[in-house]
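Technical annex B. To support the medicinal chemistry partners, we prepared a structural model of the target in complex with magnesium ion, based solely on the information shown next.
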Amino acid sequence: MRVKRFVANNIQDAMLQVKIEMGKDAVILHTRRFKEGGFLGLFSKEFVEVTAAIDDDYPTPKKEPNNQVVWPKVIEEKKDTKEVEEQEAFPEIKNTVLANGTSELEDMKKLMQDMMEQIENASLNIGLNKVGEHFYQCLLKNEVEEKLAKRLTKRCLDNIPASKFDDIDYIKTQFHDTICRIFKKPKPIVLPKKRKQQVFALVGPTGVGKTTTIAKLAANFTINNQKNIALVTSDTYRIAAVEQLKTVGEIIGVPVEVVFTPQSMKNSIISHADKDLIFIDTAGRSHKNPLHMNELKGFLDAAEPDEIFLVLSATTKYKDMLEIVENYEKINFNRIIFTKLDETSTYGPIFSIIQKSKKYLSYFTTGQSVPDDIEIADQNKIAQLILRDGAK
Ligand SMILES: Nc1nc2c(ncn2[C@@H]2O[C@H](COP(=O)(O)OP(=O)(O)O)[C@@H](O)[C@H]2O)c(=O)[nH]1
Ligand SMILES: [Mg+2]
Protein backbone atom coordinates (compact mmCIF):
# COMPACT_ATOMS: atom_id res chain seq x y z
CA MET A 1 0.00 0.00 0.00
CA ARG A 2 1.43 3.38 -1.04
CA VAL A 3 0.28 6.29 1.13
CA LYS A 4 0.91 9.87 0.16
CA ARG A 5 0.00 13.30 1.44
CA PHE A 6 -1.06 16.02 -0.98
CA VAL A 7 -1.27 19.69 -0.06
CA ALA A 8 -2.97 22.29 -2.21
CA ASN A 9 -4.75 25.61 -1.98
CA ASN A 10 -8.14 24.02 -2.38
CA ILE A 11 -9.78 20.60 -2.38
CA GLN A 12 -10.16 20.56 -6.17
CA ASP A 13 -6.44 20.96 -6.75
CA ALA A 14 -5.60 18.40 -4.08
CA MET A 15 -7.97 15.82 -5.59
CA LEU A 16 -6.60 16.50 -9.04
CA GLN A 17 -3.08 15.76 -7.74
CA VAL A 18 -4.36 12.50 -6.22
CA LYS A 19 -5.98 11.55 -9.48
CA ILE A 20 -2.89 12.34 -11.56
CA GLU A 21 -0.39 10.62 -9.26
CA MET A 22 -2.35 7.68 -7.96
CA GLY A 23 -5.15 7.16 -10.44
CA LYS A 24 -8.84 6.65 -10.07
CA ASP A 25 -8.60 3.72 -7.70
CA ALA A 26 -6.91 5.69 -4.93
CA VAL A 27 -8.69 5.74 -1.59
CA ILE A 28 -8.92 8.94 0.43
CA LEU A 29 -7.83 8.21 3.99
CA HIS A 30 -8.07 11.63 5.49
CA THR A 31 -8.66 15.28 4.67
CA ARG A 32 -8.01 18.37 6.73
CA ARG A 33 -7.75 22.09 6.34
CA PHE A 34 -4.92 23.99 8.03
CA LYS A 35 -3.45 27.46 8.11
CA GLU A 36 0.19 28.35 7.63
CA GLY A 37 2.31 31.48 7.55
CA GLY A 38 1.19 34.90 8.69
CA PHE A 39 2.05 36.70 11.88
CA LEU A 40 0.34 36.20 15.26
CA GLY A 41 -2.47 34.39 13.54
CA LEU A 42 -2.98 37.17 11.01
CA PHE A 43 -2.57 36.90 7.24
CA SER A 44 -2.13 33.13 7.41
CA LYS A 45 -3.13 31.16 4.33
CA GLU A 46 -5.50 28.17 4.38
CA PHE A 47 -4.40 24.92 2.78
CA VAL A 48 -6.09 21.58 2.22
CA GLU A 49 -4.30 18.34 2.96
CA VAL A 50 -5.50 15.07 1.48
CA THR A 51 -3.95 11.75 2.46
CA ALA A 52 -4.57 9.05 -0.13
CA ALA A 53 -3.53 5.44 -0.53
CA ILE A 54 -3.30 2.97 -3.37
CA ASP A 55 -2.38 -0.72 -3.65
CA ASP A 56 1.30 -1.27 -4.52
CA ASP A 57 0.45 -3.36 -7.53
CA TYR A 58 -1.67 -0.58 -9.01
CA PRO A 59 0.37 0.87 -11.90
CA THR A 60 1.26 4.54 -11.62
CA PRO A 61 -0.91 6.23 -14.22
CA LYS A 62 0.74 7.90 -17.16
CA LYS A 63 0.40 11.63 -17.02
CA GLU A 64 -2.07 12.86 -19.60
CA PRO A 65 -1.00 15.81 -21.69
CA ASN A 66 -2.27 19.02 -20.07
CA ASN A 67 -3.41 16.96 -17.08
CA GLN A 68 -6.65 16.15 -18.85
CA VAL A 69 -8.91 13.62 -17.25
CA VAL A 70 -9.32 10.41 -19.21
CA TRP A 71 -12.83 10.20 -20.59
CA PRO A 72 -15.08 7.46 -19.31
CA LYS A 73 -15.35 4.47 -21.58
CA VAL A 74 -18.61 3.93 -23.41
CA ILE A 75 -20.09 0.53 -22.69
CA GLU A 76 -19.31 -2.17 -25.24
CA GLU A 77 -22.01 -4.30 -26.78
CA LYS A 78 -21.12 -7.42 -24.83
CA LYS A 79 -21.31 -5.88 -21.38
CA ASP A 80 -24.52 -6.63 -19.61
CA THR A 81 -27.16 -4.58 -17.92
CA LYS A 82 -25.81 -4.16 -14.45
CA GLU A 83 -22.42 -2.93 -15.51
CA VAL A 84 -21.51 0.62 -14.62
CA GLU A 85 -20.66 2.39 -17.78
CA GLU A 86 -19.19 5.61 -16.65
CA GLN A 87 -16.37 5.02 -14.31
CA GLU A 88 -15.69 7.89 -11.99
CA ALA A 89 -12.60 9.64 -13.13
CA PHE A 90 -11.78 10.43 -9.52
CA PRO A 91 -10.83 8.33 -6.56
CA GLU A 92 -13.62 6.73 -4.67
CA ILE A 93 -14.09 8.10 -1.17
CA LYS A 94 -14.62 5.42 1.42
CA ASN A 95 -17.20 6.57 3.94
CA THR A 96 -15.63 4.84 6.88
CA VAL A 97 -12.15 6.27 6.62
CA LEU A 98 -13.08 9.90 6.58
CA ALA A 99 -12.45 11.32 9.99
CA ASN A 100 -14.53 14.45 9.66
CA GLY A 101 -18.06 13.05 9.36
CA THR A 102 -20.65 12.83 6.62
CA SER A 103 -21.22 16.50 5.97
CA GLU A 104 -17.64 16.91 4.86
CA LEU A 105 -18.01 13.79 2.79
CA GLU A 106 -21.06 15.24 1.09
CA ASP A 107 -19.23 18.55 0.53
CA MET A 108 -16.33 16.75 -0.96
CA LYS A 109 -18.48 14.62 -3.22
CA LYS A 110 -20.25 17.75 -4.42
CA LEU A 111 -16.94 19.52 -4.98
CA MET A 112 -15.63 16.55 -6.87
CA GLN A 113 -18.72 16.41 -9.04
CA ASP A 114 -18.43 20.13 -9.80
CA MET A 115 -14.78 19.71 -10.53
CA MET A 116 -15.39 16.76 -12.79
CA GLU A 117 -17.92 18.78 -14.70
CA GLN A 118 -15.53 21.70 -15.06
CA ILE A 119 -12.79 19.42 -16.28
CA GLU A 120 -15.18 17.67 -18.64
CA ASN A 121 -16.28 20.99 -20.06
CA ALA A 122 -12.72 22.22 -20.39
CA SER A 123 -11.66 18.96 -21.95
CA LEU A 124 -14.55 19.12 -24.39
CA ASN A 125 -13.81 22.67 -25.45
CA ILE A 126 -10.18 21.86 -26.14
CA GLY A 127 -10.92 19.25 -28.78
CA LEU A 128 -14.10 20.66 -30.25
CA ASN A 129 -13.63 21.86 -33.78
CA LYS A 130 -16.37 23.38 -35.90
CA VAL A 131 -17.71 20.02 -37.05
CA GLY A 132 -17.69 18.64 -33.50
CA GLU A 133 -19.59 21.69 -32.31
CA HIS A 134 -22.11 21.12 -35.11
CA PHE A 135 -22.85 17.55 -34.01
CA TYR A 136 -22.92 18.51 -30.36
CA GLN A 137 -25.54 21.15 -31.14
CA CYS A 138 -27.54 18.60 -33.15
CA LEU A 139 -27.62 16.26 -30.17
CA LEU A 140 -28.75 19.10 -27.90
CA LYS A 141 -31.46 20.24 -30.33
CA ASN A 142 -32.78 16.70 -30.34
CA GLU A 143 -32.79 16.76 -26.55
CA VAL A 144 -30.04 14.29 -25.81
CA GLU A 145 -29.08 14.90 -22.20
CA GLU A 146 -26.41 17.62 -22.17
CA LYS A 147 -23.77 15.70 -20.30
CA LEU A 148 -24.25 12.63 -22.43
CA ALA A 149 -24.10 14.74 -25.60
CA LYS A 150 -20.78 16.19 -24.39
CA ARG A 151 -19.29 12.81 -23.64
CA LEU A 152 -20.51 11.33 -26.88
CA THR A 153 -19.08 14.23 -28.88
CA LYS A 154 -15.74 14.06 -27.10
CA ARG A 155 -15.53 10.32 -27.48
CA CYS A 156 -16.30 10.46 -31.18
CA LEU A 157 -13.86 13.30 -31.80
CA ASP A 158 -11.14 11.46 -29.91
CA ASN A 159 -11.43 8.57 -32.34
CA ILE A 160 -11.27 10.69 -35.47
CA PRO A 161 -7.84 10.94 -37.10
CA ALA A 162 -6.62 14.48 -37.80
CA SER A 163 -6.78 13.82 -41.54
CA LYS A 164 -10.56 13.31 -41.28
CA PHE A 165 -11.28 16.35 -39.17
CA ASP A 166 -13.10 18.17 -41.95
CA ASP A 167 -14.82 15.11 -43.37
CA ILE A 168 -18.38 15.61 -42.16
CA ASP A 169 -19.70 12.32 -43.59
CA TYR A 170 -16.97 10.31 -41.90
CA ILE A 171 -17.60 12.05 -38.58
CA LYS A 172 -21.34 11.53 -38.89
CA THR A 173 -20.74 7.81 -39.39
CA GLN A 174 -18.59 7.75 -36.24
CA PHE A 175 -21.39 9.38 -34.26
CA HIS A 176 -23.99 7.10 -35.78
CA ASP A 177 -22.00 3.95 -35.00
CA THR A 178 -21.21 5.02 -31.45
CA ILE A 179 -24.86 5.80 -30.75
CA CYS A 180 -25.90 2.40 -32.12
CA ARG A 181 -23.29 0.64 -29.99
CA ILE A 182 -24.62 2.33 -26.88
CA PHE A 183 -28.17 1.30 -27.79
CA LYS A 184 -27.11 -2.30 -28.26
CA LYS A 185 -29.20 -4.60 -30.42
CA PRO A 186 -32.91 -4.28 -29.63
CA LYS A 187 -34.59 -7.31 -28.08
CA PRO A 188 -38.14 -7.89 -29.28
CA ILE A 189 -40.18 -11.02 -28.52
CA VAL A 190 -38.61 -14.03 -30.20
CA LEU A 191 -40.73 -17.10 -30.79
CA PRO A 192 -38.84 -20.26 -29.82
CA LYS A 193 -38.33 -22.96 -32.45
CA LYS A 194 -39.69 -25.67 -30.16
CA ARG A 195 -43.00 -25.02 -28.48
CA LYS A 196 -42.44 -23.32 -25.14
CA GLN A 197 -44.86 -21.07 -23.38
CA GLN A 198 -43.73 -17.49 -22.89
CA VAL A 199 -45.29 -15.01 -20.48
CA PHE A 200 -44.80 -11.28 -20.96
CA ALA A 201 -45.86 -8.48 -18.64
CA LEU A 202 -46.20 -4.82 -19.55
CA VAL A 203 -45.81 -2.25 -16.80
CA GLY A 204 -45.69 1.51 -16.74
CA PRO A 205 -47.63 4.64 -15.85
CA THR A 206 -51.30 5.11 -16.73
CA GLY A 207 -52.05 6.23 -20.23
CA VAL A 208 -48.70 5.39 -21.84
CA GLY A 209 -50.32 2.75 -24.04
CA LYS A 210 -49.82 -0.59 -22.26
CA THR A 211 -53.21 -2.03 -23.17
CA THR A 212 -53.07 -0.75 -26.74
CA THR A 213 -49.57 -2.22 -27.14
CA ILE A 214 -50.75 -5.58 -25.80
CA ALA A 215 -53.59 -5.46 -28.33
CA LYS A 216 -51.10 -4.77 -31.13
CA LEU A 217 -48.72 -7.54 -30.05
CA ALA A 218 -51.47 -10.07 -29.46
CA ALA A 219 -53.16 -9.29 -32.77
CA ASN A 220 -49.86 -9.57 -34.67
CA PHE A 221 -48.89 -12.88 -33.09
CA THR A 222 -52.40 -14.28 -33.64
CA ILE A 223 -52.80 -13.12 -37.22
CA ASN A 224 -49.24 -13.42 -38.54
CA ASN A 225 -47.93 -16.33 -36.47
CA GLN A 226 -51.10 -18.25 -35.63
CA LYS A 227 -50.12 -18.36 -31.98
CA ASN A 228 -52.49 -19.33 -29.21
CA ILE A 229 -52.74 -16.40 -26.86
CA ALA A 230 -54.36 -15.44 -23.56
CA LEU A 231 -54.54 -12.01 -22.01
CA VAL A 232 -54.55 -11.53 -18.25
CA THR A 233 -55.12 -8.21 -16.56
CA SER A 234 -54.58 -7.11 -13.00
CA ASP A 235 -55.75 -3.58 -13.82
CA THR A 236 -58.99 -3.70 -11.92
CA TYR A 237 -58.88 -0.12 -10.68
CA ARG A 238 -60.73 1.26 -13.66
CA ILE A 239 -63.78 -0.52 -15.05
CA ALA A 240 -62.94 1.01 -18.41
CA ALA A 241 -59.55 -0.71 -18.39
CA VAL A 242 -61.10 -4.16 -17.98
CA GLU A 243 -63.70 -3.40 -20.64
CA GLN A 244 -60.99 -2.14 -22.97
CA LEU A 245 -59.01 -5.38 -22.75
CA LYS A 246 -62.16 -7.51 -23.05
CA THR A 247 -63.06 -5.68 -26.25
CA VAL A 248 -59.56 -6.31 -27.56
CA GLY A 249 -59.94 -10.00 -26.68
CA GLU A 250 -63.29 -10.23 -28.46
CA ILE A 251 -62.03 -8.54 -31.59
CA ILE A 252 -58.95 -10.72 -31.99
CA GLY A 253 -60.62 -13.80 -30.53
CA VAL A 254 -58.46 -14.49 -27.50
CA PRO A 255 -59.57 -15.17 -23.91
CA VAL A 256 -59.20 -12.40 -21.32
CA GLU A 257 -58.85 -13.14 -17.62
CA VAL A 258 -59.30 -10.54 -14.91
CA VAL A 259 -57.38 -11.26 -11.71
CA PHE A 260 -57.74 -9.54 -8.38
CA THR A 261 -55.01 -11.25 -6.34
CA PRO A 262 -51.52 -12.65 -6.95
CA GLN A 263 -52.87 -16.14 -6.26
CA SER A 264 -55.55 -15.81 -8.94
CA MET A 265 -52.85 -14.49 -11.29
CA LYS A 266 -50.91 -17.69 -10.66
CA ASN A 267 -53.99 -19.88 -11.15
CA SER A 268 -54.92 -18.08 -14.32
CA ILE A 269 -51.49 -18.67 -15.84
CA ILE A 270 -51.62 -22.34 -14.87
CA SER A 271 -55.06 -22.64 -16.45
CA HIS A 272 -53.64 -21.35 -19.74
CA ALA A 273 -50.80 -23.86 -19.92
CA ASP A 274 -51.90 -24.69 -23.46
CA LYS A 275 -51.25 -21.16 -24.74
CA ASP A 276 -48.08 -20.17 -26.60
CA LEU A 277 -48.08 -16.62 -25.35
CA ILE A 278 -49.63 -14.93 -22.35
CA PHE A 279 -49.65 -11.15 -22.13
CA ILE A 280 -50.16 -9.58 -18.72
CA ASP A 281 -51.63 -6.10 -18.55
CA THR A 282 -51.10 -4.18 -15.33
CA ALA A 283 -52.42 -1.09 -13.62
CA GLY A 284 -50.36 2.04 -14.04
CA ARG A 285 -50.87 3.43 -10.59
CA SER A 286 -48.48 5.90 -9.00
CA HIS A 287 -44.92 4.67 -9.30
CA LYS A 288 -44.03 7.12 -6.54
CA ASN A 289 -46.17 5.17 -4.09
CA PRO A 290 -44.21 2.22 -2.63
CA LEU A 291 -47.46 0.43 -1.69
CA HIS A 292 -48.65 0.49 -5.28
CA MET A 293 -45.29 -0.73 -6.51
CA ASN A 294 -45.27 -3.56 -3.95
CA GLU A 295 -48.73 -4.61 -5.04
CA LEU A 296 -47.58 -4.70 -8.66
CA LYS A 297 -44.51 -6.67 -7.61
CA GLY A 298 -46.79 -9.18 -5.86
CA PHE A 299 -48.70 -9.82 -9.10
CA LEU A 300 -45.50 -10.12 -11.11
CA ASP A 301 -43.84 -12.46 -8.63
CA ALA A 302 -46.89 -14.70 -8.91
CA ALA A 303 -46.91 -14.56 -12.71
CA GLU A 304 -43.16 -15.17 -13.09
CA PRO A 305 -43.05 -13.63 -16.55
CA ASP A 306 -40.21 -14.43 -18.94
CA GLU A 307 -39.79 -10.74 -19.62
CA ILE A 308 -41.10 -7.55 -18.11
CA PHE A 309 -41.43 -4.61 -20.50
CA LEU A 310 -41.52 -1.10 -19.14
CA VAL A 311 -43.74 1.00 -21.39
CA LEU A 312 -42.75 4.66 -21.68
CA SER A 313 -44.36 7.32 -23.79
CA ALA A 314 -41.87 9.19 -25.97
CA THR A 315 -43.88 12.32 -25.16
CA THR A 316 -43.06 12.18 -21.44
CA LYS A 317 -40.60 14.77 -20.12
CA TYR A 318 -37.08 13.33 -19.84
CA LYS A 319 -36.84 14.04 -16.12
CA ASP A 320 -40.12 12.22 -15.52
CA MET A 321 -38.95 9.30 -17.64
CA LEU A 322 -35.84 9.03 -15.49
CA GLU A 323 -37.92 8.99 -12.34
CA ILE A 324 -40.25 6.34 -13.76
CA VAL A 325 -37.31 4.14 -14.76
CA GLU A 326 -35.77 4.53 -11.33
CA ASN A 327 -39.01 3.53 -9.58
CA TYR A 328 -39.69 0.57 -11.83
CA GLU A 329 -36.14 -0.72 -11.27
CA LYS A 330 -37.61 -2.35 -8.15
CA ILE A 331 -39.60 -4.74 -10.26
CA ASN A 332 -36.67 -5.82 -12.41
CA PHE A 333 -37.95 -4.92 -15.83
CA ASN A 334 -35.33 -5.49 -18.50
CA ARG A 335 -36.74 -4.15 -21.74
CA ILE A 336 -38.35 -0.89 -22.77
CA ILE A 337 -41.15 -0.19 -25.24
CA PHE A 338 -41.45 3.44 -26.32
CA THR A 339 -44.93 4.47 -27.42
CA LYS A 340 -46.35 7.53 -29.17
CA LEU A 341 -43.31 8.21 -31.32
CA ASP A 342 -45.81 9.76 -33.72
CA GLU A 343 -46.56 12.46 -31.16
CA THR A 344 -43.05 13.84 -30.72
CA SER A 345 -40.25 15.15 -32.89
CA THR A 346 -37.43 14.88 -30.37
CA TYR A 347 -35.93 11.46 -29.90
CA GLY A 348 -32.88 12.28 -27.78
CA PRO A 349 -34.58 11.23 -24.53
CA ILE A 350 -35.02 7.69 -25.90
CA PHE A 351 -31.27 7.48 -26.38
CA SER A 352 -30.50 9.07 -23.01
CA ILE A 353 -32.86 6.73 -21.15
CA ILE A 354 -31.41 3.61 -22.78
CA GLN A 355 -27.88 4.79 -22.10
CA LYS A 356 -28.66 5.53 -18.47
CA SER A 357 -30.81 2.52 -17.68
CA LYS A 358 -28.68 -0.01 -19.62
CA LYS A 359 -31.90 -1.78 -20.62
CA TYR A 360 -32.77 -3.10 -24.04
CA LEU A 361 -35.06 -1.40 -26.51
CA SER A 362 -37.85 -3.65 -27.77
CA TYR A 363 -40.60 -1.92 -29.70
CA PHE A 364 -41.68 1.48 -30.89
CA THR A 365 -45.34 2.28 -31.34
CA THR A 366 -46.31 4.97 -33.76
CA GLY A 367 -50.06 5.52 -33.57
CA GLN A 368 -53.39 4.31 -32.22
CA SER A 369 -54.11 1.78 -34.95
CA VAL A 370 -54.26 -1.85 -33.84
CA PRO A 371 -52.42 -3.92 -35.04
CA ASP A 372 -50.39 -1.81 -37.46
CA ASP A 373 -48.78 0.94 -35.45
CA ILE A 374 -46.01 -1.08 -33.84
CA GLU A 375 -42.51 -1.96 -35.02
CA ILE A 376 -39.40 -3.61 -33.66
CA ALA A 377 -37.26 -0.80 -32.28
CA ASP A 378 -34.53 0.23 -34.67
CA GLN A 379 -31.52 1.92 -33.11
CA ASN A 380 -30.35 3.12 -36.54
CA LYS A 381 -33.52 5.12 -36.95
CA ILE A 382 -33.04 6.89 -33.63
CA ALA A 383 -29.36 7.49 -34.36
CA GLN A 384 -30.32 9.16 -37.65
CA LEU A 385 -33.05 11.18 -36.00
CA ILE A 386 -30.91 12.50 -33.18
CA LEU A 387 -28.15 13.48 -35.59
CA ARG A 388 -30.60 15.48 -37.67
CA ASP A 389 -29.74 19.08 -38.15
CA GLY A 390 -32.38 21.20 -36.46
CA ALA A 391 -35.15 19.37 -34.68
CA LYS A 392 -38.77 20.46 -34.82
N1 LIG B 1 -50.68 8.64 -30.78
C1 LIG B 1 -50.55 7.48 -30.17
N2 LIG B 1 -51.44 7.14 -29.21
C2 LIG B 1 -51.30 5.95 -28.59
C3 LIG B 1 -50.23 5.06 -28.90
N3 LIG B 1 -50.35 3.99 -28.09
C4 LIG B 1 -51.44 4.19 -27.32
N4 LIG B 1 -52.04 5.37 -27.63
C5 LIG B 1 -53.21 5.98 -27.04
O1 LIG B 1 -52.94 6.32 -25.70
C6 LIG B 1 -54.13 6.23 -24.94
C7 LIG B 1 -53.90 5.38 -23.70
O2 LIG B 1 -53.62 4.05 -24.11
P1 LIG B 1 -53.83 2.78 -23.16
O3 LIG B 1 -53.42 1.60 -23.95
O4 LIG B 1 -55.21 2.76 -22.61
O5 LIG B 1 -52.81 3.13 -22.01
P2 LIG B 1 -52.54 2.34 -20.64
O6 LIG B 1 -53.24 3.12 -19.56
O7 LIG B 1 -51.06 2.39 -20.45
O8 LIG B 1 -53.04 0.96 -20.80
C8 LIG B 1 -55.20 5.66 -25.86
O9 LIG B 1 -55.97 6.71 -26.35
C9 LIG B 1 -54.38 5.02 -26.97
O10 LIG B 1 -55.08 4.97 -28.20
C10 LIG B 1 -49.28 5.47 -29.92
O11 LIG B 1 -48.30 4.78 -30.24
N5 LIG B 1 -49.50 6.68 -30.49
MG1 LIG C 1 -54.44 -0.05 -19.67
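Notes passed to the chemistry partners:
Residues 128 and 221 are 48 Å apart (CA to CA).
The pocket of magnesium ion (ligand 2) is lined by residues 210-211, 235, 241, 281 (CB under 6 Å).
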